[in-house]
Amino acid sequence: MASMVSDFSPYLQWALAIIAGGGVAVSVQSLTTITRLTSSATTGGLGNPLLSTIEAGGSTLLYIAAIFIPIVAFLFVLGPFYFIWKKVFTRFFKKPEKGMT
After folding, report:
1. What is the pTM of this model?
2. pLDDT in tens, 48-58
């Protein structure tokens, strides 16, 4: 958060970072704690390894998505430009056909 608001004064920058970043961290950790407590209460702790595996898998998927989604988005934007350029280039710079006089 602090790196995103670099144009502000340092006091405001770090205050926003603590409030916004801390708020997100507290909410995620609270949800994790409530889920683990519920799992422990309903399964006697036997469901916690499954929850941990699901949490690790979700984290891995989000990590992979954070890397590849911008690349895929770039290709979706670049792809149409490539095909438009190819059409325009071949239309204006087409070699004349042989046999046409």
Report:
1. 0.54
2. 999 999 989 99
